[in-house]
Amino acid sequence: MNKMLEYKGLRDEYVMIKILIMEFIATISLIYGILQFSE
Q1: d(CA 22, CA 15)
Q2: Would you give the DSSP letter of residue 35?
Q3: Which residues of 1-39 form beta strands (DSSP E)?
Q4: What Cα–Cα distance (Å) separates residue 38 from each residue in 5, 26, 27, 28, 31?
Q5: How do residues 6-26 score in pLDDT, each as one tens digit?
Q6: Cα(21)–Cα(11) distance, integer angstroms
Q7: d(C-alpha 33, C-alpha 39), whole Å
Q8: Better pLDDT: 8 or 5
Q9: Which of 10, 17, 18, 36, by CA, is between 20 and 30 Å from 27?
């Protein structure tokens, strides 16, 4: 039972990290696109 809770906690953290990475990549590509457009 405890192992299941531990696993769920890890999974939630993994999902949060994945969302953060996706947002980070989206932000960088947006900035890159603006820089490319302004040149």
Answers
A1: 11
A2: H
A3: none
A4: 50, 18, 17, 15, 11
A5: 777 788 889 999 999 999 999
A6: 15
A7: 10
A8: 8
A9: 10
What is the Cα–Cα distance from 24 to 17, expressed in whole angstroms? 10
Give the pair of three-digit tokens for residue 18. 């994945």
Q: What is the pLDDT of residue 8?
A: 76
**Cα 10 to Cα 4: distance, rounded to the nearest angstrom:** 10
AA letter at 11? R
User: Per-domain residue ranges for the chain?
Assistant: 1-39
Tell me how far CA of residue 5 lies from CA of 10, 23, 24, in angstroms: 9, 27, 29
Token pair recorded at residue 34: 């603006």
Q: What is the length of the chain?
A: 39
